[in-house]
From TrEMBL:
Gene3D superfamilies per record: Plant lipid-transfer and hydrophobic proteins (1.10.110.10)
Record protein name field: Bifunctional inhibitor/plant lipid transfer protein/seed storage helical domain-containing protein
Keywords carried by this UniProt record: Signal
Residues in Bifunctional inhibitor/plant lipid transfer protein/seed storage helical domain copies: 46-128
Protein source organism: Arabidopsis lyrata subsp. lyrata
Family membership: Belongs to the plant LTP family. PEARLI1 subfamily.
InterPro entries per UniProt: Bifun_inhib/LTP/seed_sf, Bifunc_inhib/LTP/seed_store, Hydrophob_seed_dom, Plant_LTP/defense-related
Signal peptide: 1-25
PANTHER family cross-referenced by the UniProt entry: PTHR31731
Length: 129
């Protein structure tokens, strides 16, 4: 009878040790990894007056004429100074969409061109809608 009791005790302790080892092995961090949330399309807001960006029209016209020399970028780029790329893109996008810059233009190309002239980049995932 004693051997039956000791065998049951050994099996009980073995399963307890095994159970507690498996439940504490992860330290509470074994949950499945969450699926990454899809990135929303970047939509920044423009903290500048869009009408002031009309000075960028001269820069864009000079760039599109493909003249030798450098276009007068100072007034346009100075308006974008202090803005992060997303805000600068949002400002120029708003100006292009509102046709503040004059002609009907290819918006993505014009946006990229103006940002490049000012030493900026179109943020990845930014859509001028």
């Amino acid at each position: 009878m004693a051997s039956k009791t000791s065998a049951s005790l050994v099996i009980f302790l073995t399963f307890n040790i095994l159970f507690f080892t498996l439940t504490t092995a992860c330290g509470g961090g074994c949950s499945p990894t969450p699926k990454p949330k899809p990135k929303p399309k970047s939509t920044g807001s423009c903290p500048r007056d869009t009408l002031k960006l009309g000075v960028c029209a001269n820069v864009l016209k000079d760039l599109l004429k493909i003249q030798l020399g450098t276009p007068p970028v100072k007034p346009c780029c100075s308006l974008l100074k202090g803005l992060v790329d997303l805000e600068a893109a949002a400002c120029l996008c708003t100006a292009l969409k509102a046709n503040v810059l004059g002609n009907k233009l290819n918006v993505p190309v014009s946006l990229s061109l103006l940002l490049n002239v000012c030493g900026r980049k179109v943020p990845s995932g930014f859509v001028c809608a």
